[in-house]
Design a protein that fits this description.
326 residues; Rossmann fold; Tyrosyl-Transfer RNA Synthetase; 14 helices; binds tryptophan; Trp-tRNA-ligase; protein biosynthesis
Amino acid sequence: MNQRVLSGIQPTGKLHIGNYLGAVANWIKLQDQYETYFAVVDMHSLTADYKPAEKREQIMATVIELLASGIDPKKSTIFIQSQVPQHAELAWYFATLTPVSFLERMTQYKDKAARQKENINAGLFTYPVLQAADILLYKPFGVPVGEDQLQHLELANDIARKFNARFGSTFEQIKPLLTKTPRVMSLLEPSKKMSKSLGEGHVINMNDEAAVIEKKISKAVTDTGSTKQMSAGTKNLFTLLENFGEPEEFNFFKEAFASGNIKYSDLKKNLAKLIAHHFADYRRRRKELEKNPEQVMRILAEGKEKAQAVAARTLTEVKTKMGLVL
Ligand code: TRP
């Protein structure tokens, strides 16, 4: 088994604590154990509505955020998807192996199509095929993702199996590397995953200053009335407390809840402080990188070279097996 790991992140340009706990925190740990590749998947991001004038900014911001969080270019290859054209190429070959019925089953596609009725583009539909290409190009053994991506990884494995069956053994089955953290939910609509697309009040950004965090958490929905059953909103705050606080704090509020004496305003104030403190270094490093765009560009140029070297090898193998190399 090789030691390679790959993951991808969309360039929203504003990482929130859900992205952090669900993905980036895990990536930072993995880079000490494995040969890690991290792609900023700008091509995927074109399947949602966007303003071209903002795209570049968002991509740069995402790279800066990853670096400021602790993704270390000495340990990891960090690159932009569209700068490695093999992703799009392999996606086409994979598309010819993917039954439409498989794509129609994808829950993320159905969710997004329902949300952007005016823009159900073909890219949104074939999004998981491009994701399969992102992954299999690097032949990783594992892909760190949140549980919402499991279906996409299964599809990548389906495609790998189909490719092998038709053209000979090429791709091994990949393993999802799930983070222990459960999903972080929206502050205002805790039945939904925390997502920038829901609106600013729903998310806590890693870059939010302490006062902003406090204000947002103060508006988070908790329990209505005295229920023994913990509501989704309260559960979400406890999840955050568990991840950003010490076990003593977590246990203190857990017991207060159990006895019916919990003061949500105290829980919220504590939580806001913990989160603001946790990302203090991040905010400082981020400001430094923003002043040094040349440094960021150098890191990306290097990432592109390293990613392309691996991607080109796989693509040549694929084209040869498919009979395209003359
Ligand atoms: N679809 C993933 C998400 O929304 C992003 C992604 C694109 C990805 N390509 C990937 C994740 C490859 C892991 C591996 O989070």
